[in-house]
From TrEMBL:
<dbReference type="InterPro" id="IPR039422">
    <property type="entry name" value="MarR/SlyA-like"/>
</dbReference>
<dbReference type="InterPro" id="IPR036388">
    <property type="entry name" value="WH-like_DNA-bd_sf"/>
</dbReference>
<dbReference type="Pfam" id="PF12802">
    <property type="entry name" value="MarR_2"/>
</dbReference>
<feature type="compositionally biased region" description="Low complexity">
    <location>
        <begin position="162"/>
        <end position="173"/>
    </location>
</feature>
<dbReference type="InterPro" id="IPR000835">
    <property type="entry name" value="HTH_MarR-typ"/>
</dbReference>
<feature type="region of interest" description="Disordered">
    <location>
        <begin position="148"/>
        <end position="173"/>
    </location>
</feature>
<protein>
    <submittedName>
        <fullName>MarR family transcriptional regulator</fullName>
    </submittedName>
</protein>
<dbReference type="InterPro" id="IPR036390">
    <property type="entry name" value="WH_DNA-bd_sf"/>
</dbReference>
<feature type="domain" description="HTH marR-type">
    <location>
        <begin position="8"/>
        <end position="145"/>
    </location>
</feature>
């Protein structure tokens, strides 16, 4: 026992090790992506997830949230629309624009992908205790809240101690 209080601020070594360990999240994401159905690449799963989370939106907003070029977003949208997972609707506020909306088929596809991810986690973490899985999940959720949606802020986190960026679900473009 070091004699330090349990809630003492981590030193730089801890932050360095955390950054190193978070690279393993990339390994997990690659495994999840590898298991996706052939017709649903990670980009499609990502845009469906964003539409479920934030609701219907314009292509420009989706591009911002995905953090990619508009032409790339357009290809991903076309892929999802061709499969009936999303629909393009006229924007009632701007006749020149379209709103993207998740369809029932897209909702079902996301449910299937969620089950697939759940089964993958269960397969890989089957020897973990329920408490360990819950602790990791809780800490990752807290980490996500702390960082917020960097893409919605142009890639920058708010300074510590300031309010987070507005909820992207409430601001439509």
């Amino acid at each position: 026992m070091s004699g330090e209080p349990e809630d003492a601020e981590p030193d730089l070594r801890h932050y360095r090790e955390l950054a190193r360990q978070l690279r393993s999240v990339g390994v997990v994401n690659r495994e999840l992506a590898r298991r996706l159905p052939h017709d649903c690449p990670p980009a499609s799963a990502g845009l469906l997830t964003l539409l479920r989370r934030h609701g219907e939106m314009r292509m420009s907003r989706l591009t911002e949230l995905l953090g990619i070029d508009l032409s790339v977003t357009s290809r991903h949208v076309a892929h999802a629309a061709d499969r009936g997972w999303i629909e393009r609707l006229p924007d009632p506020h701007d006749g020149r624009s379209r709103l993207l909306r998740l369809t029932h088929s897209g909702e079902s596809r996301l449910d299937e992908l969620s089950e697939l991810a759940t089964e993958t986690m269960r397969e890989f973490l089957g020897d973990w205790s329920a408490e360990d899985v819950a602790t990791l999940s809780s800490l990752l959720e807290r980490l996500g809240r702390t960082f917020g949606d960097c893409r919605a802020r142009g890639g920058h986190s708010p300074p510590p101690g300031t309010d987070a960026a507005p909820d992207p679900a409430t601001s439509r473009t």
